[in-house]
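Input record (one chain):
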Amino acid sequence: MKLLHLTGPAPYFTNSFLLVSGGEAAIIDPAPDAARFAPLLEKENARLTHILLTHGHFDHVYGLDSVRAAWPAARLCLFRADAVGTEDRPVKESPEILWLTDGQTLTVGQAELTVLHTPGHTPGSCCWLCEGVLVSGDTLFAGSAGRTDLPGGDWETLMRSLRRLADDPALPDELRVLPGHGAFTTLGLERAQNPYMKG
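The corresponding structure, as predicted from the sequence alone:
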């Protein structure tokens, strides 16, 4: 598996990722538009099969329309609770939509991804787990946590989601955490130092 990092436009500089495995690929949070992903897919000789959202806020789906137009067969995967959370770009029912459930697994090439529902920042916020990496969206940041003052945010719910990540014995300390903004970290470091993970 290869995980390529891109950033979305200013002023948010949202972290976005292209996961490539076995000739297939998935975009996680299409903040950049299709023109940024196309040469990477060509270079990796990979076919885009999935578009995975950590949540529906505009800075994470800025490039979604162009990506879906460029690769209409790719499955868009998100929690139904965030279908209206894409604000000015609400997600409508279509055969290419996969509504997620907590703990669901997806296969991209030879890579298996598991989705963890971690609401609080938004009702449909989630983290993507794959091969020693946790893409945490705006649930967990290095030394911080997602805001809850936007529509659909709930502080107590976010604290329960962070407690889930902190207490899960299946998630090792060495797990790399790739947040939706800012620096990358490890789960062990956040367990030890992040005040929000300590409740």
